[in-house]
Amino acid sequence: MADDKSGRNVLLAACLLFLYILDVRICFCEENANDEFEEYLLCRQCGLEIARASDLNKRPSKAAHRQRNDTIAGVDGVLIQLFKNPQETYFEVITAETANVQQHGQPYRQDTWWPGFSWRISICPRCGFHLGWYYEPFSQTAETEEQTFVGLILDNLLYQKYADNLLVVPKSYRS
């Protein structure tokens, strides 16, 4: 009887040690996963990764009708600017150093929201959805190459964490 009880105690101690080690490993993995995970903004139309949250930047424009700061994709203080195009359409725009977009058409100098920069329409490389505009200085030199940026339409993007929570139910399961 004593051997049976001591065997159970050893087994219980081994199980507790295993659970402790497992808990430590899970915590360690969660901490490292947060360091390695990069939040993305996705194309609202097809879900393609368009811009990393860490590439968002502040590029204020005097042409903006309104400006505000907000937290987007875990980045605090992202500048959101409201612009109106010549067709009287309003856009809330954020800027990024770089983005996974395809430039469409020739650069235009007229009606630019950033003086000194020409713009081209930027579309999603997968589905062709209009995502914003690619801006480049009027005169392109080695020094100004780094000054290019992308203005992204906030309403045409989706936060990756939000998209991860969406559930698509097959039509056959709907009543």
Automatic annotation (TrEMBL):
The keyword Nucleotide-binding is annotated on this UniProt entry? no
InterPro entries from the UniProt entry: CULT
Query: Is the keyword Signal in the record?
Result: yes
UniProt source species: Branchiostoma belcheri
Q: Which residues form the CULT domain?
A: 38-161
Name the encoding gene, please: LOC109476362
Q: What is this protein called?
A: Protein cereblon homolog
Alphabetized UniProt keyword annotations: Signal
Signal peptide region? 1-29
Could you tell me the superkingdom of the organism this chain comes from? Answer: Eukaryota
> Membrane-spanning residues where?
none
